[in-house]
Amino acid sequence: MSDENMLSQDEIDALLQGDLGLDDLEDDDNLGGSGAGGGSGSGDGGSGVYTAEQIRVLHEVVDSCFIPEINVLSEYVQQEVALSNSKTPELVTEESLKGEVLSTQHIFVTFDFEEGKSGIVLGGIPSAMIAALMTGEEWDGDPDFEWDDLKLSALQDCFNGLLGKLVPALKTATGKDFVGQQPQAIVLSGSDFPPEATLLKQKNIAQIVYDLNVGEEPASQFRFLVSENLAKTIILSKLPDTTFGSEEAEKTATQQTDASNVATNNASAPGQVVDPSNTAQPQPAQPAQPGVQQQAQMMPPQQGQMPVAQMSASGGQQMPYAPWQFAPITSAPMGQDQLSNMELLRDVTLQITVELGRARMPIGEILELVNGSIVELNKQAGEAVELYVQGKLIARGEVVIIDENFGIRITSIVSPQERLTTVRS
Asked: What is the chain's percent helix, strand, coil content, to nearest 5?
């Protein structure tokens, strides 16, 4: 046997200690809380949520979207950007993430969709390098890099470009339309996650870890986190008939509860055999007894018809009647005078404008604007934008990405009083 086929001492020790991660796999190949994927494996919640086949599908879809599209970041930082060494997805918990990312500064970038939340966790050094290159600074590897609104905004713009590529890639991979929300960059430090990092506080988060390579810099860790809702949406797009471990557990619990209720009902009636499948049958209506007088029901007279009355069974004078006659059906066209005013305006097109923000600048600063200049607006990142119709404020909403185009999701409609005020002004 050649030396290259022999086990090293470390591998022999690992075999003797059973430390190969095999104990983390369930008998039914379900994904447990600890990782079969080369990550930290410190999560302990959500055992049995996904099967091995479901994890494989999730892994393939995410890889097919991220690995080819990550190079869009090269256009922003003017250096080659690539992902490599993809790890198998694993489930992580809030506590395990705290132990891994709060020990040193990290940046969390939200990638939220209508179908669920996702996000990227980057180390402080690679995030700072991207932000510095985005703002035109020379990157010198400064470990004391200080984040401000301008640098966070630059990082958001960079990953917004990645999201613009990721949305159509997800549609191609799954055949399903995804609507993404504008990314938000959040600094992770201290002892707890900030309130706006809601994904990091959820259960059953699927984590896929890559090596991120930017230019000639050493590779750093790139974590993509997927919420349970979004992961199941992706899996169901490829495996529409699949079921998940949590659903099976809930179904089993429901069946056990039903069986317990049946047993309790049987025990409450000794000597009586209860058939659970036996359902109450409707009793046939009893015929009316002779001599009971029924109330006459008058029907409204129609065109060319006299009223009809139903008299009591005991007799009495009946009113004259005639056979029912329907009004003739005609196809006469509806005149324009019968249409409402709004119907006449449905084909009229209006100009719709979405305002991201405004700014006032001295003429001197305006004349100094060049390519690459940044103009600060009066709105903060994540604040609702305004939708105007013919220059009048109608609604407010949040910016989304549909395929490669920007869009707006309406979150509030301007009240009639406020709308009337804008019209008068």
From this structure: 35, 20, 50
Q: pLDDT by residue (tens digit) across 36-50?
A: 334 444 444 345 789
- DSSP H helical ranges for 226-279: 228-238, 245-268
Q: How many Å apart are CA 221 and CA 224, to the nearest integer?
A: 10
Residue 211 CB contacts under 8 Å (≥ 6 apart), including other chains: 83, 84, 85, 219, 220, 221, 222
| 215 to 34, 51, 157, 188: CA distances (angstroms) | 33, 37, 20, 25
Structure tokens at 324: 């029912």
CB environment 193-208: b (16+ within 10 A), e (fewer): beeebebbeeebbbbb
d(CA 166, CA 402): 10
Q: What pTM was computed for the model?
A: 0.55
In this predicted model, what pLDDT tens digit does every residue of 158-187 receive, in sequence order?
Answer: 898 898 899 999 999 999 988 888 899 999
Is residue 245 within 8 A of residue 235, CB to CB? The reply is: no
Which is more confident, 396 or 38? 396
Could you tell me if residue 32 is inside a domain? yes
User: Across the strands, what pairs with 151?
Assistant: none
For 192-211, write each residue's pLDDT tens digit: 999 999 999 999 999 999 99
pLDDT, position 14: 57
Phi, psi of 299 (to 5 degrees): -105, 140
Instruction: CATH number of the domain at 425, please.
Output: 2.30.330.10
The last residue of one of the domains, among 219, 245, 271, is 245
Contact between 150 and 385 under an 8 Å Cβ cutoff? The reply is no
Per the DSSP assignment, residues forming a β-bridge with 221 are: 211
The answer to whether 47 and 28 are in contact (CB under 8 A) is no
Question: Is position 91 within any domain?
Answer: yes
Which CATH number covers residue 129? 3.40.1550.10
Q: pLDDT tens-digit profile of 70-106? A: 999 888 888 899 999 999 999 999 999 999 998 888 9
Q: Which two tokens stand for residue 13?
A: 């020790």
pLDDT of residue 291: 46
The domain tally of the chain equals 2
Paired strand residues for 106 = 123, 188
Range of the domain at 224: 21-245
The answer as to whether 3 is a domain residue is: no
Tell me how far apart the alpha carbons of residues 340 and 169 are, in angstroms, rounded to a whole number: 45
CA R_g for the chain: 34
Residue 130, H or E segment: helix 124-134
- Please measure the distance between the N-terminal and C-terminal CA atoms of the chain and give it in whole angstroms: 90
